[in-house]
Amino acid sequence: MSGVGSLLVMANIVIQKKNEVFLKVECEPHIKYELADQFTFDVPNAKFMPQYRNRYWDGKIRLFNTEKGEIYVGLLDKVEQFCKNHDYSFEFSDNKHYGLPYEENDGVSKEGVKDYLTNISKVKPRDYQIEGVFDALKKNRRLLISPTGSGKSLMIYAVTRYHVQAKRKVLIVVPTTSLVEQMYKDFVDYGWDASKFCHRIYGGRDLLSDLPVTISTWQSIYKQDRKWFRQYGVVIGDEAHQYKSKSLVTLMTKLDNAKYRYGFTGTLDGTQTHKWVLEGLFGPSYKIINTRDLQEAGYLARLNIRCLLLKHDPRKFDTYEDEVQYLISHDSRNKFIKNLALDLKGNTLILYSRVAQHGERLYDLINTNNRKVFFVHGGVDTEERESVRQITEEENDAIIVASYGTFSTGINIKRLHNVIFASPSKSRIRNLQSIGRVLRTGKDKVKATLYDIADDCTKGSRSNYTLNHLVERIKYYNEEKFNYDIITIKFGTIR
User: Fold this and answer.
1) Which structural domain, as residue segments, surrounds residue 42?
2) Are residues 319 and 344 in the same domain?
3) Is 208 within a domain?
4) Contact between 108 and 260 (Cβ < 8 Å)
5) Three-state SS for 59?
6) What count of other Cβ atoms lies within 10 Å of the Cβ of residue 383?
7) Kind and range of the H or E element at 482?
8) Are 424 and 325 contained in the same domain?
9) pLDDT per residue over 245-287, tens digit each?
10) How distant, in Å, are the alpha carbons of 342, 382, 439, 455, 479 from that of 305?
């Protein structure tokens, strides 16, 4: 890397690790202000946030602190690019505790990783998984992007085993209790005696353990002090796209002894801000493979998307909330979802946003048939959710009515044939993660269908809010090269 081999005596910028979270940048004040400008971003939709409305915040995120001269270690490559673009010389200064800002692991090779993965797992590794693990172990810090169904848990397992073998303590952070148990189970399935190595934390479990690996929800640990976090030399963040909230950023910044940092995610939200925050916390991003390649290789099911556009009488809504309330309480719309779910062959997942206002209504409507129907929301404990998942793997025509928060991310059901979007959303992450639920292949399953329910209430020249959200979703479908069609249904034809 430039700047390492021959240090410049009179460099414009001197870069040193403060710890494993932040770089210390020393330079003239005018350069600091230029860096601050380079690493300042407008937050999308900030004007709708209470902090902005109440003038507590200007709607910007700043990744370079001019007062302290600090920036995330994971943004080193972007600081270097800044120097090159502005023709500034730079040098790296060695910190006696944390070393040089940039280090690579020369002790790994692709062939070595392949042999290692083959030896530690009952599951044969795929070529792209070998590439992903090699890149992670080589670079020490990485944001690894790989779609749902690509086998991220095997890659996490391999990275974990490597560091345990090197006598380092590993912290694996996941968003839900279900994923704690699923990660633990995956490790067992790969052939590891996880009980001897892995401690699980959630729901009041003991925070202290001598075992080398901790698997925890972020909610269970983020309030712990820095001393607790300093026991870990390695942090792995699963579903890393969620690491932009204040609590998760706080957690990651407390891990100032964790030299080895790996984030795994299938989806980013498409904004530069989100990507740079994650790269800052973990490291530069590396896209392992995309969904289309996985489908063509037969690793994921073929997907058809049917956008069912329900045509309402023209209606103007003063606010987005008014429109949502109209839609989720609409009897004909809810009966349409019910009839659609009961008519479909195979296991079906219905995703909704609001438990009491929408989820309960849909469940009560659908749960009058001979079909097995399950209702899942935040109040359903981990054991029951896992039971639903296992039962569904053995069923042919089960229906799960689940909130986006519980089933859009991380839950693996191979024998899931259909997904219904019952509640409108424009979130790129939510939509792509939800689609990921239905893409896994299973017994007698090679294809899957998404039913994207949208609503046209257009009055005059102004489109309604949720119709505009459909337009956003179609952009995502085009980006991912998914096959889709749009079917307009007049309410008079709805049973």
Assistant:
1) 13-93
2) yes
3) yes
4) no
5) coil
6) 11
7) none
8) yes
9) 778 889 999 999 999 999 999 888 778 888 899 999 999 999 9
10) 18, 30, 12, 16, 14
